Amino acid sequence: MKKAFTLIELLVVIAIVAILAAILFPVFAQAKAAAKKTADLSNCKQLGTGMYLYLGDNDDAFMSAYTYIGDSSSNGYENWSYKLYPYVKSWDLFVSPGSPNGGWPPAQFLGNNLGFGYPAPMKPGTRQDNQAPRLSYTANLLILPRKRSSKDVNINSVNAGQLDAVSDTILLAPLTDDANCLVTSSSAYKSYRTGSAIARQGQVPFEGDDTYPAFEAMTKASTDATFFGPQGCAQSKGYNDVNKSSVRFIAPKRFGNGNNFVFADDHAKFMPFERTLDPERFAWGKSAYSFAGSPIYKPGTTTNVN
Fold first, then answer.
1. Cys bridge to 208: 43, 69, 148, 246, which one at CB 3.0-4.6 A?
2. Which residues contact 122 (CB under 8 A, 6 or more apart)?
3. What is the pTM of this model?
């Protein structure tokens, strides 16, 4: 006679399976996150190498972060990712495996965005701007300037030879994963915008399109207010004086407490976001290269960052 499991035996087996699942599922999740972080680092490295090749063909001059086609905003824009594409030959490299939305489409795109689709709340527009169809990375505006047209006479292009400590200066960073942080005064979702962790003196938010005689490194309190505060872009859909800092275009912590960054010498590495703000080792630039080399001071001082 075949003996069946008793109810107690069955419950014990179920309990053991549940315990094993509780132990193993977090391990699997951690392994998956680590794999995404590693794949993202590979993307960053290849984008850095592509930029190095681009510089070789362009007299060591970095491209503008974006420019108006035909010198007019009505014609759309051309983003740095579009100019870099011939050197990496894959749109997939512009999408981070850690990006929850699969990367943002251009601010203006047609139909199904060249077959790459689009996440909410984006909607098709009236043209296809020249940008990677899905984008998870943004540029440091102190190196890739926001020189949109000939009217931006006070914003200059940057040559690689101008940079200090290239191995410690961020070139590309993760683009925000929060749609609210892409919103500007025009209420558009501008995935082509660039950021940097600098403020006007007194921690006054710097939007990235004006020139000033001097800047200062942002503090953790200022960046936290921009991202997470009651009026920060991750909490508020409104565009206001707190969240208008250009740092809002950067994802502060895509992987745990930090991100993979591409540096100006083309290497890539992981760094906690707070570490990039350290005025003794400020990672966004020793001076504002795209703003005529204006100084960047330590917060509340007139001493240059290191």
1. 246
2. 104, 105, 109, 179, 189
3. 0.89
